[in-house]
Amino acid sequence: MGKYITFDWFIKKLLRNKGNSVVLEGFLSVLFGTQIKIQKILESEGNQEFETQKYNRVDLLVEDSDGAKFIIEVQNDYEVDFFQRMLFGTSKVVTEYIKEGEKYGSIQKIYSVNIVYFALGQGKGYFYRGTTVFRNMKNKREVLKLSKRQQEVFKRKNVWDIFPEYYLLRVNKFDEEVKEPLQEWISFLKTGEIPKSYTAQGLAEAREVMRVSELDDEERKAYERYIDSIRISRSVAFSYDDMGYCRGLEEGEKKGRAAALLATARSMKADGLSVDVIAKYTGLTPGEIVEL
Q1: What is the rounded end-to-end Cα distance, in angstroms, of the chain?
Q2: Nearest CA to 90 among 63, 114, 71, 116?
Q3: CA-based angle 217:196:182, to the nearest 5?
């Protein structure tokens, strides 16, 4: 286990603590190349405690000072339909945060930031951005632009500034020499280490608030079980990825996650943790835990 807690555990468990948002603000500011100030954490299904089917998944919804919304998701296990999940996430936020009777023009910009630890799609890169562009099918060099009136009303320069924007970090594909702030962050996401030479915005604060040594005994034990589960899941995913084998992977992952979850719960129970605590961190019901 590394010196620092994983980013997914941080945003799920510690981000609500006062002052910790500066770490996430630093990450987003480096990612987008502009200063991001988090105004509030918004409630969504993904912001609730871990459920059994979400044990290896984290998603967070926050809003900045300009009203733009950011979905941050961390996915450890292979998911063949992860692109569709990205689409569903942004669509749900659009519908949830427009009030009945409001004009469509009131819809705020949505950014979907996805950190994945598996080979999603086919490509050599580790950092991708997706936007919506309307291209002239008779002259494909021309793209549809906003009128001057639309630019004034919506405070946007381009059509793609209105539609959801997707950012994808394929962490395991990163193997470059670290030369810039974003690479420092991706290196941290991949290795869990923050060398003293790293100066990217937010990492100095991460060194302080994300130390494993700062967790109390109960939190540390729960975190250790979580890391064990993640290691098992990633090993399975990497093995299938290396073999280029995908058929039947989803079913195998479900069984593997269920087995890892039960093993984690047994270990937590053996360590003397209460049923309530085990249920909180595994998603199992008290009855299932008692029967272990």
Answers
A1: 26
A2: 71
A3: 95
Question: Residue 107 and residue 105: Cα distance in Å, rounded?
Answer: 5
Burial of 207 (0-12, 13-18, 19+ CB in 10 A): middle
192, 54: one domain:
yes
CA distances from 105 to 71, 121, 122 (A): 20, 33, 36
Sequence-separated (6 or more) residues with CB below 8 Å from residue 13:
219
Residue 1 lies in a domain: no
Q: Are residues 155 and 251 in the same domain?
A: no
How far is it, in rounded angstroms, from Cα 118 to Cα 76?
Answer: 7
Q: State how far the Cα of 205 lies from the Cα of 185, in Å rounded to an integer.
A: 13
Number of CB atoms found within 10 A of residue 15's CB: 18
Owning domain of residue 184: 7-209
Same domain, 14 and 44: yes
| The model scores a pTM over 0.85 | no
Residues 176, 183 contacting (CB under 8 angstroms): yes
Sheet holding 38-41, edge to edge: 38-41, 57-64, 69-75, 110-116, 165-170, 127-130
Backbone angles phi, psi at 14, to 5 degrees: -115, -15
pLDDT band at 224 (very low <50, low <70, confident <90, very high): confident
| Residue found by looking up tokens 């793609």 in the block | 160
Q: What is the pLDDT of residues 161-207, one digit of tens each?
A: 999 999 999 998 999 999 999 999 999 999 999 999 999 999 999 99
